[in-house]
Request: fold
Amino acid sequence: MKRLEFLGLAPLIIFMGIFLGLPLTAIVRFSFLNSEGDFTLQNFATITSGIYLDAFLLSTKLSLASAAISLILGFAFAYSLVNTRVPLVKRLISTASGVLANTGGVPLAFMFIAVLGTYGALTTWLKNLGIDIYGGTWTLYSFSGILIVYLYFQIPLMILISIPVLENIKPEWRAAAETLGSNALNFWRKVLLPILFPQLLGIFLLLFANSFAAYATAAALTSGSLALVPVQIASLIGSNVQVDGANIAMALGMGMVILVGITTVGYALLEKRSSRWRH
Amino acid sequence: MAPLRMISVTLRLGTILIGLLFFAIPIYASSIFAFRESDGSFSAQPISSALENHELVRSFFLTMQIAFGTVLLTLLLLIPTIAYLHFVIPGARAWVEFLTLTPLVIPPIVQGVGFLYSMPTSLKSTPHALIFAYTVLALPFSYRAIDSAFSSIDVRTLFNAASSLGANFMTVVSKILIPNVAAGIFAAIFLTIALVLGEFAYASLLLWDTFPTVLAVAGMSNASTAVALSILSLIGVWLILSALSAFNRRSRGLIVSGV
Reply:
């Protein structure tokens, strides 16, 4: 009888089995094959050297930088937002963050070409003020350029995640600390940050994973010239130049799943650990 | 203590101001780029040239169809499943929630490659097959939105109360259950739409002309049209979200990302 009850879950599980399970199985299987269909470990040797290793390093660097910056800036902004008494601003910002974090992608890339591209509006203004941002080697399509654009979906994501976290800070904590003679600085250092630390670390991992998996912005902005891992996967699938190209793409995909998987599990564990403070 | 308070309030307002500028500057600057003529006057030329671009218009309607299909499939799949979970086997909830989070671990580009190499040709020959793919992509967010709405009410008690007053099952579902979880359903609908309107990895891998992929191509040839459409699409989604959040304040906490 107990077993039969689980039949009600069949539609969801069958659906996920077909449209998530089968693609994932294909990725795992093809990553261990060459284009002739023979078993090989060569794909994994290929992706851990040369341009593919560079792609992993570049993706990691971009994701670490964007996660760290958006963690700090997003947290500061969300903190001010939660403590403000203007609900309209709060609603405005949280909905705008929802849009940027979810729909960002291609539109963000074009907006930034219009803002900071060679003929962008901000570029022109700054030039009129005597600051030529294209005077040196900097371009929007370089590492730091794309980092700026990534911040525009990473910071909104950070704001969205940290608002509920910050709303859970109990005023009693501060009151208790103040009764015991603590000033604001000490309260932050000795009470709030230790409580929030596991959660912030977890959020950092989530931001890292989100940036690592992102593809649309990089694709639309650089047309594939900045060799991040997702960009490499797409170009391997799109062209037939590389021997065993599709299989190498699958191996890269496996690498991404493992990296994003580890960070997401880390997030879930840290989130669980810190949930005991929220009652 | 007073001067310290002052500093903290000033800091807070300053941060909010900087944050608002952070959002406003790119939107303002790109609007100038898209809509200002070289002589300094403003024109809606980029919009009208976008409307004349049949490919762009077609891709918009295709994306709308896919969004509608994805929302429909998501609701058909999730509402009965989640209702069943809460009614019959609440013990399995944690397990199913974990299962629905798995798409987060597999980046869309990787799912897309897997889809390409595992699905039958019949599914790969119609853009509407993206409905299945996008339902999976949206699952972590749509599931959590609906599930937390169900968690916030006592499904069993409501069901028993209504039944004892003579309501049949369908009446309970349509008159009691749906209105009580409407907020969560709306959040799920919004999240799904936002995701479909922005999804790029799957569609570009499978070479389908959805709005984001056509927009990306249009951007190569006509920058001001692409910029104008980018701004409009972000503002459009933002207006829908604002309307939804005004409709229900509780949905705000449910918005999580998946770029």
